[in-house]
Amino acid sequence: MENSKGFKDSQVIILGICIAVATIVASLIMSGGFLKVMKFWQHTITVKGSAQEIIKSDYIVWDCNVTRRDKSLQTAYKELNDDLTKVLSYLASKNVNKEDMQIEQIATTKLFQKDKDDKDTDIVDGYELTQTIEIRSNDVGNIDTLAHKSTELIDQGINFESSTPQYFYNKIDALKVELLAKATENAKLRAESIVSSVGNKIGSLQSAKMGVFQITPVTSTQVSDYGEDDTSSLEKKVMVVINASFSIE
Q1: Which residues contact 97 (CB under 8 A, 6 or more apart)?
Q2: pTM for the complete prediction?
Q3: Residues near 72 by beta carbon (within 8 Å), at least 6 away in sequence
Q4: 211, 71 in Cβ contact below 8 A?
Q5: Range 218-247 average pLDDT
């Protein structure tokens, strides 16, 4: 019995030693892997790259409207219709395509008499009718010039109002892809400049994430965390920022 017990104790001791050795070996293996991972992360560099380009808008949206007021709704409508005919004739003479024009529904506003405190009463004193014409065109130069000169219609006795045009660029998606490539290259150049000072070289790209993408007036220096999308300028500055990580060799 004592020999059997001693044999079992020996087995337990041997098993314990094996477990201890296996634990130590596994720890060494895991530590080695962990160190390699740490070495990988410690030997990377993350930088920002940017690229920009000046573009000229290739699409314009311009609103203008005519307004008439009269005590009689019928008279106001007739005068408005006469004015609209003159405006459309004027636009046609300036080479505006009929297909580019959208004539909106007439907006009618009741005008009420005022009391002694200059507050509206319930008595209708007249009507104001407004009709808007929206022009969407690729002929940016012509429409832009027209938007600035069209107030000459006022000389014809027309109550005409011109809104500020909005300018767009139709190929912005393709430009974004091109600028992202340039921004990534710019990030690589910046990373190379940093690590070369200590004798290292840049390896492969590990990760890249697009940062701010914005469209601003050419002279603007404004930068927004959420980006900008300017529609007020004919010429614009498009800029993209990218955050890129590279391995270090």
Answers
A1: 137, 139
A2: 0.76
A3: 126, 127
A4: no
A5: 88
